[in-house]
């Protein structure tokens, strides 16, 4: 059997890097895309924009036209100012349009491989609003609608599309408002790790979830189930 091929955007750091490392360790042929340089141990890293159709087409060629997995992890974090149209356009382009372009460009190869897609969303947008960046919240809410739509489009060809929605994850992406190991706003009491999110992504890409599509899997340590009133009096683990 030939090795399964995966394309991972945002593969140089954070959740994208952890996912690429996980798939390589599991025997996948991984082609990463990132705007920054670096190396991907055991895989290939293409330097370029994850929303650029020509870069995406090059990644598909590196997979010999057959893609079993596409993970869209590239993105920019919430920032501001909230009333900047330039900020709005940039965030929507990277956090919403780029995943659309990735699926659109890779679609024939995903159909050929009866592949699985995982988009990295967020609890911001789907559950929470953003004081700093309505653009980020809108983009991540849009990612869920995008996934549900492509799940319907892909179903006849056996292509599955799902979302992981992380909460506070200890990467450079997340601003540290509280200590990583003492989060009173998270029932588990800490920030998550990129590897913990990658583990869920790997699960969604695998055969154990062959009947799961159009779903959103929240990976937030219970943050979204904790009311504001309870946050201040929650006893942390340990």
Task: Please characterize this protein's 3D structure.
The chain is an alpha/beta fold and 238 residues long. Helix content is 38%, strand content 15%. The protein has seven helices and seven strands, in the order E-H-E-E-H-E-H-E-H-H-E-H-E-H. It has helices spanning 14-25, 53-62, 85-112, 123-126, 134-154, 194-205, 228-231; strands spanning 5-9, 29-34, 44-47, 69-72, 116-120, 160-166, 216-219. It has a seven-stranded parallel β-sheet with strand order 3-2-1-4-5-6-7, sandwiched between helices. Helix 1 (14-25) crosses helix 6, helix 2 packs parallel to helix 3 (85-112) and helix 3 (85-112) packs parallel to helix 5. The radius of gyration is 17 Å and the shape is globular. The N and C termini lie far apart (47 Å). The model has no long low-confidence stretch (mean pLDDT 91).
Main features:
238 residues, alpha/beta, 7-stranded parallel sheet, 7 helices, 15% strand
Let me know the number of strands.
7
Average of per-residue pLDDT values: 91
| Uncertain stretches of 5 or more adjacent residues | none
Secondary-structure content class: alpha/beta
Largest sheet entry? 7 strands, parallel
What percent strand?
5-15%
Strand arrangement within the widest β-sheet reads 3-2-1-4-5-6-7
Q: Count the helices. How many?
A: 7
Kindly, what is the distance between the CA atoms of the first and last residues, rounded to a whole number of angstroms? 47 Å
What does the overall shape look like? globular
SSE arrangement, N to C = EHEEHEHEHHEHEH
Radius of gyration: 17 Å
The helix content, as a percent range, equals 25-40%
């Amino acid at each position: 059997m030939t090795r399964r091929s995966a394309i991972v955007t945002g593969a140089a750091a954070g959740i994208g890097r952890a996912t690429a490392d996980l798939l390589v360790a599991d025997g996948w042929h991984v082609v990463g895309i990132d705007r920054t340089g670096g190396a991907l141990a055991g895989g290939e890293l293409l330097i370029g924009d994850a929303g650029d159709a020509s870069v995406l087409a090059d990644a598909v060629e590196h997979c010999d036209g057959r893609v079993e997995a596409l993970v869209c992890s590239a993105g920019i974090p919430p920032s501001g100012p909230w009333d900047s149209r330039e900020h709005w356009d940039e965030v929507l382009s990277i956090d919403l349009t780029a995943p659309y372009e990735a699926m659109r460009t890779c679609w024939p190869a995903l159909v050929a491989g009866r592949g699985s897609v995982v988009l990295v969303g967020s609890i911001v947008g789907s559950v929470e609003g953003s004081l700093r960046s309505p653009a980020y919240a809108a983009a991540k809410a849009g990612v869920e609608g995008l996934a549900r739509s492509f799940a319907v489009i892909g179903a006849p060809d056996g292509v599955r599309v799902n979302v992981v929605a992380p909460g506070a994850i200890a990467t450079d992406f997340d601003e540290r408002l509280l200590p990583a190991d003492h989060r009173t706003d998270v029932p588990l009491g800490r920030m998550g790790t990129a590897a913990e999110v990658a583990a869920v992504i790997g699960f969604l890409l695998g055969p154990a979830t062959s009947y799961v599509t159009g779903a959103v899997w929240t990976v937030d340590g219970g943050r979204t189930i904790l009311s504001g009133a309870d946050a201040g009096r929650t006893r942390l683990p340990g």
